[in-house]
Amino acid sequence: MTDIKSMNMEELKELMVQIGEKPFRAKQIYGWLHEHLVTSYDEMANIPKSLKEKLKDYPITVLEELDVQTSKVDGTRKYLFRLSDGNMIESVLMRYKYGNSVCISSQAGCRMGCRFCASTIGGLTRNLLPSEMLDQIYRIQTSIGERISNVVVMGTGEPLDNYDNLLRFIHILTEDGGIHISQRNLTVSTCGLVPRIYELADEKLQMTLAVSLHAPNDEKRRELMPIANKYSVDELLDACRYYFDKTGRRITFEYSLVAGVNDSKENAQELAGRLKGLNCHVNLIPVNPVRERSFVRSTRQAVENFKINLEKCGINGTIRREMGSDIDGACGQLRKRYMEKTESEK
Ligand code: SAH
């Protein structure tokens, strides 16, 4: 691997030895990249010129900010970044009372095919490198001049479909010597790649696993998410139980409400029945209408009723506050709009 920003400390030490340098240089370079967030070797004040020369063979991955939209309502910002090969990805900054949270993409595009999602419409282009996941956070922290305290991997892509890079990303993000975000302040969201959930559980990380459930049974879930043809709700919930047993971390279930599809009282009761006994929390969100899709969002009242019906059966739910409603369009739409624009210019 030559992507220096995706290397962990050990690998960076090995690289130093390989190119005839002292291993302690690794710690310095790592700190410049992941703590001070510099974008060039020139900025690394304590690195000798001769070493900087050698490092020219190891270009630093830096994302280019193409566009940023700021919400007048709550300060939410949507960033569009260009990768070095011209691909584009989206990230979102959300400002909460408890701190700044960034939602990052894990892939350019996605191959999971969820019916209500804009990010999957053009399919998967490629996996993001660990450095490309990290740099979404680094660039945003640098651009606002404030610390990012929370990270959610809920943007474009299925993080568990880019598993090795995701794990590497998590370690660099949360370990000493870098930006050092607490694992407890990290959430990774998956549509439910069951074997990967088991693997992840065995890593015993302290992050939160969010699982996009969106339906109380297999039949309904298959209408919304092709992955439901591969793994049943039972298999998925077994994996979630295993995750909780291994990590002690409460599972978050995401449930996007689609009018007339998954938002009835019966749906809430069936869901509560399935989740009973599992240490979990349900995040409710009315589905974001996507231009290319015909799904209609549930009314405010239907969402509130759903929450009440869950709670009557002993399952906690939160209605997710909508952020940046004025710069909206569902996730993935900024990127899509840009891709269409560049296509039509060709
Ligand atoms: N692939 C991962 C993470 C990215 S999607 C996953 O599936 O969890 C982040 C969340 O947004 C998921 O819960 C996804 O189902 C949901 N989502 C996607 N499009 C949506 C839309 N139009 N309205 C509401 N939620 C949506």
UniProtKB/TrEMBL annotation:
Top-level division of the source organism's lineage: Bacteria
Radical SAM core domain residues: 96-326
The record's free-text note on cofactor binding: Binds 1 [4Fe-4S] cluster. The cluster is coordinated with 3 cysteines and an exchangeable S-adenosyl-L-methionine.
CDD domains: Radical_SAM
Primary localisation category: cytoplasm
GO cellular component, as recorded: cytoplasm
EC assignment: 2.1.1.192
GO biological process, one term: tRNA methylation
Family to which the UniProt record says this protein belongs: Belongs to the radical SAM superfamily. RlmN family.
NCBIfam families per record: rRNA_mod_RlmN
Functional description taken from the UniProt entry: Specifically methylates position 2 of adenine 2503 in 23S rRNA and position 2 of adenine 37 in tRNAs.
Protein's UniProt name: Probable dual-specificity RNA methyltransferase RlmN
